[in-house]
Design brief:
homodimer
Chain lengths: 299, 299
Protein backbone atom coordinates (compact mmCIF):
# COMPACT_ATOMS: atom_id res chain seq x y z
CA UNK A 1 0.00 0.00 0.00
CA UNK A 2 1.24 3.51 -0.70
CA UNK A 3 1.71 6.23 1.88
CA UNK A 4 0.78 9.90 2.12
CA UNK A 5 3.01 12.37 3.95
CA UNK A 6 2.60 16.06 4.69
CA UNK A 7 5.54 18.03 6.03
CA UNK A 8 8.40 20.31 5.10
CA UNK A 9 10.91 20.30 2.26
CA UNK A 10 13.80 22.55 3.15
CA UNK A 11 17.35 23.66 2.58
CA UNK A 12 19.45 22.99 5.68
CA UNK A 13 22.80 24.39 6.74
CA UNK A 14 24.27 22.21 9.44
CA UNK A 15 27.55 22.16 11.34
CA UNK A 16 28.69 19.37 13.66
CA UNK A 17 32.15 18.65 15.11
CA UNK A 18 32.66 16.35 12.12
CA UNK A 19 31.95 18.77 9.28
CA UNK A 20 29.29 20.99 7.79
CA UNK A 21 26.97 21.46 4.81
CA UNK A 22 25.40 24.60 3.33
CA UNK A 23 21.87 24.67 1.89
CA UNK A 24 21.72 20.89 1.64
CA UNK A 25 18.48 19.02 0.96
CA UNK A 26 16.46 18.69 4.18
CA UNK A 27 13.00 18.96 5.72
CA UNK A 28 10.81 16.52 7.64
CA UNK A 29 8.84 15.30 4.62
CA UNK A 30 12.04 14.87 2.61
CA UNK A 31 13.76 12.64 5.16
CA UNK A 32 10.51 10.78 5.76
CA UNK A 33 9.83 10.19 2.06
CA UNK A 34 13.33 9.05 1.14
CA UNK A 35 13.37 6.64 4.06
CA UNK A 36 9.87 5.27 3.39
CA UNK A 37 10.57 4.97 -0.35
CA UNK A 38 12.74 1.90 0.35
CA UNK A 39 9.53 0.12 1.37
CA UNK A 40 6.66 1.62 -0.60
CA UNK A 41 5.49 4.44 -2.91
CA UNK A 42 5.27 7.77 -1.10
CA UNK A 43 2.96 10.63 -2.02
CA UNK A 44 4.49 13.85 -0.82
CA UNK A 45 2.54 17.00 0.06
CA UNK A 46 4.73 20.05 0.73
CA UNK A 47 5.78 23.42 -0.66
CA UNK A 48 9.05 24.83 -1.98
CA UNK A 49 10.02 28.20 -3.45
CA UNK A 50 11.04 28.97 -7.00
CA UNK A 51 14.68 28.86 -5.88
CA UNK A 52 14.49 25.17 -5.01
CA UNK A 53 17.30 23.50 -6.99
CA UNK A 54 16.01 21.29 -9.79
CA UNK A 55 18.66 18.68 -8.97
CA UNK A 56 16.79 17.99 -5.71
CA UNK A 57 13.56 17.48 -7.61
CA UNK A 58 15.36 15.13 -9.98
CA UNK A 59 16.78 13.20 -7.01
CA UNK A 60 13.37 12.83 -5.34
CA UNK A 61 11.98 11.56 -8.65
CA UNK A 62 14.64 8.84 -8.78
CA UNK A 63 13.23 7.56 -5.51
CA UNK A 64 9.81 5.98 -5.23
CA UNK A 65 8.22 9.38 -4.51
CA UNK A 66 5.18 10.89 -6.22
CA UNK A 67 5.60 14.69 -6.37
CA UNK A 68 2.14 15.74 -7.61
CA UNK A 69 1.50 17.16 -4.14
CA UNK A 70 4.67 19.27 -4.07
CA UNK A 71 3.66 22.89 -4.70
CA UNK A 72 6.18 25.33 -6.14
CA UNK A 73 5.32 28.85 -4.94
CA UNK A 74 6.72 32.30 -5.63
CA UNK A 75 9.38 33.11 -3.07
CA UNK A 76 12.18 31.32 -1.27
CA UNK A 77 12.26 27.77 0.05
CA UNK A 78 12.07 27.10 3.82
CA UNK A 79 15.60 27.34 5.28
CA UNK A 80 17.01 26.13 8.59
CA UNK A 81 20.49 26.56 9.98
CA UNK A 82 21.68 24.73 13.07
CA UNK A 83 24.71 23.30 14.80
CA UNK A 84 25.55 20.50 17.20
CA UNK A 85 28.24 20.16 19.86
CA UNK A 86 29.96 16.87 20.74
CA UNK A 87 26.82 15.86 22.61
CA UNK A 88 24.86 15.40 19.41
CA UNK A 89 21.51 15.09 21.17
CA UNK A 90 20.42 18.70 20.82
CA UNK A 91 20.52 21.07 17.85
CA UNK A 92 21.22 24.75 18.41
CA UNK A 93 19.14 26.67 15.89
CA UNK A 94 20.97 29.57 14.23
CA UNK A 95 17.93 30.62 12.15
CA UNK A 96 14.62 29.33 10.83
CA UNK A 97 13.34 31.13 7.72
CA UNK A 98 9.87 29.78 6.99
CA UNK A 99 9.66 31.70 3.66
CA UNK A 100 7.02 30.04 1.40
CA UNK A 101 6.16 27.69 4.26
CA UNK A 102 4.70 30.56 6.32
CA UNK A 103 1.58 30.75 4.12
CA UNK A 104 1.42 27.07 3.25
CA UNK A 105 -2.12 25.76 2.79
CA UNK A 106 -1.78 22.03 2.22
CA UNK A 107 -3.84 20.99 -0.75
CA UNK A 108 -4.30 17.25 -1.12
CA UNK A 109 -4.57 16.32 -4.82
CA UNK A 110 -7.79 14.47 -5.65
CA UNK A 111 -5.94 11.24 -6.44
CA UNK A 112 -4.34 11.26 -2.95
CA UNK A 113 -7.61 11.54 -1.02
CA UNK A 114 -8.22 7.82 -0.79
CA UNK A 115 -4.82 7.04 0.68
CA UNK A 116 -5.09 4.67 3.63
CA UNK A 117 -1.75 5.29 5.36
CA UNK A 118 -1.09 8.87 6.38
CA UNK A 119 1.83 10.49 8.17
CA UNK A 120 1.53 14.02 9.50
CA UNK A 121 5.11 15.21 9.93
CA UNK A 122 5.89 17.96 12.39
CA UNK A 123 3.95 21.08 11.36
CA UNK A 124 1.28 23.27 12.98
CA UNK A 125 -1.39 20.94 14.49
CA UNK A 126 -4.06 23.04 12.74
CA UNK A 127 -2.49 22.24 9.37
CA UNK A 128 -2.20 18.59 10.36
CA UNK A 129 -5.93 18.56 11.22
CA UNK A 130 -6.73 20.35 7.97
CA UNK A 131 -4.93 17.66 5.98
CA UNK A 132 -6.74 14.89 7.82
CA UNK A 133 -10.09 16.45 6.90
CA UNK A 134 -9.18 16.18 3.22
CA UNK A 135 -8.36 12.46 3.37
CA UNK A 136 -11.56 10.43 3.04
CA UNK A 137 -11.11 7.22 5.00
CA UNK A 138 -7.59 6.79 6.34
CA UNK A 139 -6.92 3.35 7.84
CA UNK A 140 -3.86 4.42 9.81
CA UNK A 141 -2.85 7.93 10.83
CA UNK A 142 0.49 8.58 12.55
CA UNK A 143 1.86 11.95 13.52
CA UNK A 144 4.84 13.76 14.96
CA UNK A 145 5.05 17.10 16.74
CA UNK A 146 7.57 19.21 18.66
CA UNK A 147 8.00 21.25 21.86
CA UNK A 148 7.00 24.46 20.05
CA UNK A 149 3.48 23.17 19.32
CA UNK A 150 3.16 21.49 22.73
CA UNK A 151 3.86 24.88 24.31
CA UNK A 152 1.95 27.11 21.89
CA UNK A 153 -0.87 24.95 20.48
CA UNK A 154 -1.46 22.43 23.23
CA UNK A 155 -5.26 22.37 22.89
CA UNK A 156 -5.14 22.01 19.11
CA UNK A 157 -2.57 19.22 19.37
CA UNK A 158 -4.60 17.30 21.95
CA UNK A 159 -7.71 17.75 19.79
CA UNK A 160 -5.80 16.34 16.81
CA UNK A 161 -4.63 13.31 18.82
CA UNK A 162 -8.23 12.05 19.06
CA UNK A 163 -7.99 11.29 15.33
CA UNK A 164 -4.48 9.83 15.41
CA UNK A 165 -3.68 6.11 15.74
CA UNK A 166 0.04 6.32 16.43
CA UNK A 167 1.77 9.31 17.97
CA UNK A 168 5.56 9.48 17.59
CA UNK A 169 7.51 11.91 19.78
CA UNK A 170 10.75 12.11 21.72
CA UNK A 171 11.19 11.63 25.46
CA UNK A 172 11.45 15.31 26.34
CA UNK A 173 8.31 16.07 24.32
CA UNK A 174 6.46 13.18 25.98
CA UNK A 175 7.36 14.48 29.44
CA UNK A 176 6.28 17.99 28.47
CA UNK A 177 3.00 16.98 26.83
CA UNK A 178 2.04 14.60 29.65
CA UNK A 179 3.34 16.98 32.35
CA UNK A 180 4.89 13.90 33.95
CA UNK A 181 8.59 13.00 34.39
CA UNK A 182 8.01 9.22 34.40
CA UNK A 183 7.80 7.95 30.81
CA UNK A 184 5.49 5.02 31.56
CA UNK A 185 2.99 7.24 33.39
CA UNK A 186 3.46 9.89 30.69
CA UNK A 187 2.72 7.39 27.92
CA UNK A 188 -0.49 6.34 29.70
CA UNK A 189 -1.55 9.97 29.92
CA UNK A 190 -0.85 10.49 26.20
CA UNK A 191 -2.78 7.31 25.31
CA UNK A 192 -5.73 8.80 27.24
CA UNK A 193 -5.72 11.68 24.71
CA UNK A 194 -6.72 9.28 21.95
CA UNK A 195 -3.92 7.42 20.11
CA UNK A 196 -3.94 3.66 20.44
CA UNK A 197 -0.13 3.56 20.42
CA UNK A 198 2.57 6.00 21.42
CA UNK A 199 6.20 5.69 20.35
CA UNK A 200 8.76 7.54 22.44
CA UNK A 201 12.13 8.07 20.75
CA UNK A 202 15.10 8.28 23.10
CA UNK A 203 17.94 9.00 20.63
CA UNK A 204 21.01 6.94 21.53
CA UNK A 205 18.88 4.95 24.01
CA UNK A 206 16.47 3.56 21.42
CA UNK A 207 12.69 3.79 21.37
CA UNK A 208 9.73 2.66 23.45
CA UNK A 209 6.28 1.60 22.25
CA UNK A 210 3.31 1.77 24.60
CA UNK A 211 -0.25 0.67 23.96
CA UNK A 212 -3.10 -0.09 26.36
CA UNK A 213 -2.03 -3.68 26.76
CA UNK A 214 1.70 -3.90 26.12
CA UNK A 215 5.07 -2.24 25.83
CA UNK A 216 8.10 -2.80 23.62
CA UNK A 217 11.65 -1.57 24.01
CA UNK A 218 13.84 -1.19 20.90
CA UNK A 219 17.56 -0.56 21.31
CA UNK A 220 19.55 1.97 19.36
CA UNK A 221 22.21 0.61 17.05
CA UNK A 222 25.61 1.22 18.68
CA UNK A 223 27.50 3.65 16.45
CA UNK A 224 31.06 4.83 16.85
CA UNK A 225 30.52 8.09 15.02
CA UNK A 226 27.40 10.12 14.48
CA UNK A 227 28.16 12.69 11.81
CA UNK A 228 24.85 14.54 11.66
CA UNK A 229 21.69 13.71 13.65
CA UNK A 230 19.51 16.06 11.53
CA UNK A 231 16.43 14.26 10.23
CA UNK A 232 16.96 11.12 12.33
CA UNK A 233 13.42 11.31 13.78
CA UNK A 234 11.81 11.76 10.36
CA UNK A 235 13.95 9.01 8.87
CA UNK A 236 12.83 6.76 11.74
CA UNK A 237 9.18 7.63 11.04
CA UNK A 238 9.74 6.97 7.31
CA UNK A 239 11.13 3.49 7.89
CA UNK A 240 8.39 2.83 10.42
CA UNK A 241 5.47 3.93 8.24
CA UNK A 242 7.08 2.58 5.07
CA UNK A 243 7.32 -0.90 6.52
CA UNK A 244 3.78 -0.74 7.95
CA UNK A 245 2.34 0.39 4.61
CA UNK A 246 4.10 -2.44 2.84
CA UNK A 247 2.88 -4.91 5.49
CA UNK A 248 -0.62 -3.46 5.05
CA UNK A 249 -1.71 -3.92 8.66
CA UNK A 250 -0.67 -2.21 11.89
CA UNK A 251 -1.03 -5.10 14.31
CA UNK A 252 1.35 -5.25 17.27
CA UNK A 253 3.77 -7.68 15.61
CA UNK A 254 4.10 -5.49 12.51
CA UNK A 255 4.41 -2.33 14.60
CA UNK A 256 7.33 -3.84 16.53
CA UNK A 257 9.11 -4.85 13.32
CA UNK A 258 8.35 -1.40 11.88
CA UNK A 259 10.03 0.25 14.88
CA UNK A 260 13.16 -1.79 14.20
CA UNK A 261 13.09 -0.84 10.51
CA UNK A 262 12.67 2.79 11.57
CA UNK A 263 15.67 2.41 13.89
CA UNK A 264 17.71 0.82 11.09
CA UNK A 265 16.96 3.73 8.74
CA UNK A 266 17.73 6.36 11.40
CA UNK A 267 20.98 4.62 12.34
CA UNK A 268 22.16 4.83 8.74
CA UNK A 269 20.97 8.40 8.25
CA UNK A 270 23.16 9.82 11.04
CA UNK A 271 26.27 8.32 9.43
CA UNK A 272 26.51 11.22 6.97
CA UNK A 273 25.23 14.76 6.38
CA UNK A 274 21.87 15.65 4.83
CA UNK A 275 20.43 12.64 2.95
CA UNK A 276 23.85 11.53 1.73
CA UNK A 277 23.79 8.14 3.46
CA UNK A 278 20.25 7.38 2.26
CA UNK A 279 21.31 8.23 -1.31
CA UNK A 280 23.76 5.35 -1.41
CA UNK A 281 21.83 2.95 0.86
CA UNK A 282 20.69 -0.42 -0.52
CA UNK A 283 17.97 -2.89 0.49
CA UNK A 284 20.80 -5.27 1.29
CA UNK A 285 22.23 -2.77 3.81
CA UNK A 286 18.79 -2.47 5.43
CA UNK A 287 18.36 -6.25 5.76
CA UNK A 288 21.88 -6.61 7.13
CA UNK A 289 21.33 -4.09 9.92
CA UNK A 290 17.87 -5.49 10.70
CA UNK A 291 19.54 -8.86 11.33
CA UNK A 292 22.14 -7.09 13.50
CA UNK A 293 19.30 -5.64 15.60
CA UNK A 294 18.07 -9.21 16.09
CA UNK A 295 21.49 -10.31 17.32
CA UNK A 296 21.78 -7.20 19.48
CA UNK A 297 18.62 -8.02 21.43
CA UNK A 298 18.53 -11.82 21.40
CA UNK A 299 18.76 -13.68 24.73
CA UNK B 1 28.52 -23.49 41.68
CA UNK B 2 28.83 -21.14 44.65
CA UNK B 3 30.03 -17.56 44.47
CA UNK B 4 32.49 -15.44 46.45
CA UNK B 5 31.88 -11.73 46.99
CA UNK B 6 33.97 -9.09 48.69
CA UNK B 7 32.47 -5.69 49.40
CA UNK B 8 30.76 -3.56 52.02
CA UNK B 9 28.06 -4.27 54.58
CA UNK B 10 26.63 -0.99 55.81
CA UNK B 11 23.88 0.89 57.54
CA UNK B 12 22.24 3.31 55.11
CA UNK B 13 20.07 6.35 55.75
CA UNK B 14 18.26 7.27 52.57
CA UNK B 15 15.65 9.87 51.65
CA UNK B 16 13.81 10.02 48.33
CA UNK B 17 10.69 11.99 47.35
CA UNK B 18 8.73 8.85 48.26
CA UNK B 19 9.93 8.30 51.83
CA UNK B 20 13.01 7.63 53.90
CA UNK B 21 14.78 5.05 56.08
CA UNK B 22 17.29 5.48 58.90
CA UNK B 23 20.20 3.07 59.46
CA UNK B 24 18.65 0.42 57.24
CA UNK B 25 20.59 -2.62 56.03
CA UNK B 26 22.77 -1.67 53.06
CA UNK B 27 26.20 -2.04 51.47
CA UNK B 28 27.39 -3.35 48.11
CA UNK B 29 28.10 -6.90 49.30
CA UNK B 30 24.75 -7.06 51.10
CA UNK B 31 22.68 -6.13 48.03
CA UNK B 32 24.85 -8.36 45.87
CA UNK B 33 24.58 -11.37 48.19
CA UNK B 34 20.85 -11.17 48.76
CA UNK B 35 20.24 -10.86 45.03
CA UNK B 36 22.63 -13.69 44.10
CA UNK B 37 21.25 -15.94 46.86
CA UNK B 38 18.13 -16.52 44.76
CA UNK B 39 20.36 -18.42 42.32
CA UNK B 40 23.23 -19.95 44.28
CA UNK B 41 25.10 -20.09 47.61
CA UNK B 42 27.05 -16.90 48.30
CA UNK B 43 30.18 -16.64 50.41
CA UNK B 44 30.42 -13.14 51.79
CA UNK B 45 33.67 -11.41 52.77
CA UNK B 46 33.18 -8.08 54.55
CA UNK B 47 33.49 -6.31 57.90
CA UNK B 48 30.99 -4.84 60.35
CA UNK B 49 31.35 -3.16 63.74
CA UNK B 50 30.20 -4.46 67.09
CA UNK B 51 27.12 -2.27 66.79
CA UNK B 52 25.83 -4.16 63.76
CA UNK B 53 22.28 -5.26 64.67
CA UNK B 54 21.99 -9.00 65.22
CA UNK B 55 18.66 -9.01 63.37
CA UNK B 56 20.53 -8.22 60.15
CA UNK B 57 22.87 -11.15 60.75
CA UNK B 58 19.85 -13.38 61.36
CA UNK B 59 18.25 -12.12 58.13
CA UNK B 60 21.36 -12.80 56.05
CA UNK B 61 21.51 -16.31 57.55
CA UNK B 62 17.94 -16.99 56.39
CA UNK B 63 19.20 -16.37 52.86
CA UNK B 64 21.58 -18.70 51.07
CA UNK B 65 24.58 -16.73 52.40
CA UNK B 66 27.65 -18.15 54.13
CA UNK B 67 28.90 -15.62 56.71
CA UNK B 68 32.22 -17.22 57.73
CA UNK B 69 33.99 -14.40 55.89
CA UNK B 70 32.09 -11.62 57.69
CA UNK B 71 34.47 -10.14 60.27
CA UNK B 72 33.07 -8.36 63.32
CA UNK B 73 35.55 -5.71 64.49
CA UNK B 74 35.71 -3.32 67.41
CA UNK B 75 34.10 -0.04 66.42
CA UNK B 76 31.16 1.16 64.40
CA UNK B 77 29.77 -0.26 61.18
CA UNK B 78 30.25 1.60 57.86
CA UNK B 79 27.47 4.19 57.51
CA UNK B 80 26.24 6.10 54.46
CA UNK B 81 23.58 8.78 54.26
CA UNK B 82 22.23 10.06 50.97
CA UNK B 83 19.23 11.55 49.26
CA UNK B 84 17.68 11.62 45.82
CA UNK B 85 15.59 14.26 44.05
CA UNK B 86 12.77 13.44 41.61
CA UNK B 87 15.42 12.60 39.03
CA UNK B 88 16.44 9.43 40.84
CA UNK B 89 19.55 8.89 38.74
CA UNK B 90 22.01 10.52 41.08
CA UNK B 91 22.48 10.22 44.85
CA UNK B 92 23.54 13.25 46.85
CA UNK B 93 25.80 11.99 49.63
CA UNK B 94 25.18 13.60 53.04
CA UNK B 95 27.96 11.65 54.75
CA UNK B 96 30.13 8.55 54.38
CA UNK B 97 31.53 7.21 57.66
CA UNK B 98 33.91 4.38 56.78
CA UNK B 99 34.36 3.42 60.48
CA UNK B 100 35.61 -0.22 60.70
CA UNK B 101 35.82 -0.31 56.92
CA UNK B 102 38.70 2.20 56.90
CA UNK B 103 41.19 -0.40 58.16
CA UNK B 104 39.59 -3.40 56.49
CA UNK B 105 42.08 -6.07 55.43
CA UNK B 106 40.05 -8.68 53.57
CA UNK B 107 40.93 -12.13 54.82
CA UNK B 108 39.65 -14.96 52.68
CA UNK B 109 38.85 -18.01 54.84
CA UNK B 110 40.76 -21.12 53.80
CA UNK B 111 37.59 -22.88 52.67
CA UNK B 112 36.76 -19.98 50.30
CA UNK B 113 40.09 -20.02 48.48
CA UNK B 114 39.05 -22.52 45.85
CA UNK B 115 35.95 -20.61 44.82
CA UNK B 116 35.64 -20.41 41.04
CA UNK B 117 33.24 -17.46 40.66
CA UNK B 118 34.40 -14.24 42.26
CA UNK B 119 32.81 -10.80 42.41
CA UNK B 120 34.82 -7.82 43.57
CA UNK B 121 32.24 -5.24 44.60
CA UNK B 122 33.16 -1.56 44.59
CA UNK B 123 36.06 -1.04 47.02
CA UNK B 124 39.65 0.22 46.70
CA UNK B 125 41.24 -1.50 43.65
CA UNK B 126 44.23 -2.40 45.85
CA UNK B 127 41.92 -4.35 48.17
CA UNK B 128 40.24 -5.95 45.16
CA UNK B 129 43.66 -7.06 43.87
CA UNK B 130 44.63 -8.29 47.34
CA UNK B 131 41.53 -10.51 47.46
CA UNK B 132 42.24 -11.90 44.00
CA UNK B 133 45.73 -12.95 45.14
CA UNK B 134 44.20 -15.03 47.91
CA UNK B 135 41.88 -16.97 45.59
CA UNK B 136 43.77 -19.89 44.04
CA UNK B 137 42.30 -20.51 40.60
CA UNK B 138 39.23 -18.43 39.90
CA UNK B 139 37.39 -19.40 36.71
CA UNK B 140 35.48 -16.14 36.39
CA UNK B 141 36.27 -12.80 38.00
CA UNK B 142 33.89 -9.86 37.67
CA UNK B 143 34.30 -6.48 39.26
CA UNK B 144 32.68 -3.12 39.82
CA UNK B 145 34.27 0.26 40.61
CA UNK B 146 33.27 3.92 40.88
CA UNK B 147 34.29 7.42 39.81
CA UNK B 148 36.27 7.94 43.06
CA UNK B 149 38.71 5.11 42.20
CA UNK B 150 38.83 6.03 38.50
CA UNK B 151 39.94 9.50 39.56
CA UNK B 152 42.20 8.58 42.48
CA UNK B 153 43.53 5.09 41.71
CA UNK B 154 43.40 4.95 37.93
CA UNK B 155 46.69 3.04 37.52
CA UNK B 156 45.79 0.47 40.18
CA UNK B 157 42.35 -0.04 38.66
CA UNK B 158 43.74 -0.54 35.16
CA UNK B 159 46.33 -2.96 36.56
CA UNK B 160 43.53 -4.92 38.27
CA UNK B 161 41.52 -5.09 35.03
CA UNK B 162 44.19 -7.31 33.45
CA UNK B 163 43.01 -10.04 35.84
CA UNK B 164 39.30 -9.40 35.45
CA UNK B 165 37.04 -11.25 32.99
CA UNK B 166 33.95 -9.06 33.20
CA UNK B 167 33.97 -5.42 34.22
CA UNK B 168 30.63 -3.89 35.24
CA UNK B 169 30.31 -0.12 35.44
CA UNK B 170 27.86 2.65 34.64
CA UNK B 171 27.88 4.88 31.57
CA UNK B 172 29.40 7.93 33.26
CA UNK B 173 32.16 5.77 34.75
CA UNK B 174 32.83 4.16 31.37
CA UNK B 175 33.17 7.57 29.71
CA UNK B 176 35.49 8.73 32.47
CA UNK B 177 37.68 5.63 32.52
CA UNK B 178 37.97 5.46 28.74
CA UNK B 179 38.30 9.25 28.40
CA UNK B 180 35.86 8.96 25.50
CA UNK B 181 32.27 10.26 25.22
CA UNK B 182 31.13 7.59 22.73
CA UNK B 183 30.18 4.40 24.63
CA UNK B 184 31.07 1.98 21.84
CA UNK B 185 34.54 3.49 21.42
CA UNK B 186 34.84 3.69 25.22
CA UNK B 187 33.95 0.03 25.61
CA UNK B 188 36.62 -0.94 23.07
CA UNK B 189 39.17 1.07 25.01
CA UNK B 190 38.16 -0.62 28.29
CA UNK B 191 38.35 -4.06 26.63
CA UNK B 192 41.91 -3.18 25.62
CA UNK B 193 42.74 -2.91 29.35
CA UNK B 194 42.11 -6.64 29.77
CA UNK B 195 38.53 -7.75 30.46
CA UNK B 196 36.97 -9.98 27.83
CA UNK B 197 33.56 -8.41 28.42
CA UNK B 198 32.40 -5.02 29.66
CA UNK B 199 28.87 -4.34 30.86
CA UNK B 200 27.75 -0.71 30.87
CA UNK B 201 24.73 0.03 33.05
CA UNK B 202 22.57 2.94 31.90
CA UNK B 203 19.96 3.08 34.68
CA UNK B 204 16.49 3.66 33.24
CA UNK B 205 17.92 3.02 29.74
CA UNK B 206 19.04 -0.56 30.42
CA UNK B 207 22.47 -2.09 29.99
CA UNK B 208 24.94 -2.80 27.19
CA UNK B 209 27.34 -5.72 26.86
CA UNK B 210 30.42 -5.43 24.70
CA UNK B 211 33.00 -8.08 23.90
CA UNK B 212 35.59 -8.29 21.14
CA UNK B 213 33.16 -9.88 18.74
CA UNK B 214 29.64 -8.81 19.71
CA UNK B 215 27.34 -6.47 21.54
CA UNK B 216 24.04 -6.91 23.36
CA UNK B 217 21.49 -4.33 24.44
CA UNK B 218 19.21 -5.10 27.40
CA UNK B 219 16.25 -2.82 28.10
CA UNK B 220 15.26 -1.54 31.51
CA UNK B 221 11.93 -2.73 32.84
CA UNK B 222 9.46 0.17 32.56
CA UNK B 223 8.48 1.15 36.10
CA UNK B 224 5.89 3.73 37.14
CA UNK B 225 7.50 4.43 40.48
CA UNK B 226 11.06 4.03 41.65
CA UNK B 227 11.06 4.34 45.44
CA UNK B 228 14.77 3.99 46.16
CA UNK B 229 17.54 3.33 43.60
CA UNK B 230 20.13 2.58 46.32
CA UNK B 231 21.85 -0.74 45.65
CA UNK B 232 20.37 -1.19 42.17
CA UNK B 233 23.82 -1.71 40.61
CA UNK B 234 24.89 -4.29 43.21
CA UNK B 235 21.54 -6.06 42.96
CA UNK B 236 22.04 -6.18 39.18
CA UNK B 237 25.52 -7.65 39.66
CA UNK B 238 24.13 -10.17 42.17
CA UNK B 239 21.47 -11.45 39.78
CA UNK B 240 24.02 -11.46 36.97
CA UNK B 241 26.74 -13.40 38.83
CA UNK B 242 24.20 -15.56 40.67
CA UNK B 243 22.71 -16.78 37.40
CA UNK B 244 26.16 -17.32 35.83
CA UNK B 245 27.38 -19.33 38.83
CA UNK B 246 24.28 -21.49 38.68
CA UNK B 247 24.74 -21.95 34.90
CA UNK B 248 28.41 -22.80 35.57
CA UNK B 249 29.77 -21.30 32.37
CA UNK B 250 30.12 -17.73 31.17
CA UNK B 251 29.58 -18.21 27.45
CA UNK B 252 27.90 -15.41 25.52
CA UNK B 253 24.43 -16.97 25.63
CA UNK B 254 24.57 -17.37 29.42
CA UNK B 255 26.02 -13.89 29.89
CA UNK B 256 23.10 -12.38 27.95
CA UNK B 257 20.55 -14.27 30.06
CA UNK B 258 22.48 -13.29 33.18
CA UNK B 259 22.20 -9.61 32.24
CA UNK B 260 18.44 -10.00 31.99
CA UNK B 261 18.30 -11.75 35.38
CA UNK B 262 20.42 -8.92 36.79
CA UNK B 263 17.98 -6.41 35.29
CA UNK B 264 15.03 -8.31 36.76
CA UNK B 265 16.56 -8.24 40.24
CA UNK B 266 17.47 -4.54 40.01
CA UNK B 267 13.99 -3.64 38.74
CA UNK B 268 12.44 -5.27 41.81
CA UNK B 269 14.96 -3.81 44.22
CA UNK B 270 14.10 -0.18 43.37
CA UNK B 271 10.43 -0.80 44.17
CA UNK B 272 11.07 -0.38 47.91
CA UNK B 273 13.65 0.97 50.37
CA UNK B 274 16.75 -0.91 51.54
CA UNK B 275 16.41 -4.65 50.84
CA UNK B 276 12.69 -4.65 51.63
CA UNK B 277 11.56 -5.75 48.18
CA UNK B 278 14.16 -8.55 48.00
CA UNK B 279 13.01 -9.78 51.44
CA UNK B 280 9.58 -10.65 50.10
CA UNK B 281 10.63 -11.58 46.55
CA UNK B 282 9.94 -15.13 45.28
CA UNK B 283 11.43 -17.26 42.50
CA UNK B 284 8.02 -17.06 40.85
CA UNK B 285 8.27 -13.24 40.76
CA UNK B 286 11.70 -13.52 39.15
CA UNK B 287 10.51 -15.92 36.45
CA UNK B 288 7.46 -13.77 35.77
CA UNK B 289 9.49 -10.63 35.14
CA UNK B 290 12.08 -12.56 33.10
CA UNK B 291 9.23 -13.57 30.77
CA UNK B 292 8.07 -9.95 30.68
CA UNK B 293 11.56 -8.93 29.52
CA UNK B 294 11.19 -11.46 26.70
CA UNK B 295 7.89 -9.89 25.64
CA UNK B 296 9.33 -6.41 26.01
CA UNK B 297 12.11 -7.09 23.49
CA UNK B 298 10.52 -9.59 21.10
CA UNK B 299 10.06 -8.58 17.45
Amino acid sequence: MSLLVIGSVALDSVATPFGSVEEALGGSATYFSCSASFFTTVKLVAVVGEDFPSRHIRFLKTRNIDLKGLQVRKGRTFRWKGSYEYDLNEAKTVYTHLNVFSNFKPHIPEEYKDEKFVFLANIDPDLQADVLKQVRKPALVACDSMNFWIENKRKELIRLLKKVDIFILNDAEARELAEEPNLLKGAKRILSFGPRMVIIKKGEHGALLFSDHSSFSAPAYPLESIYDPTGAGDTFAGGFMGYLSRAGKANESNVRKAIIYGSVMASYNVEDFSLNRLRRLTLKDIDKRYREFKKLTCF
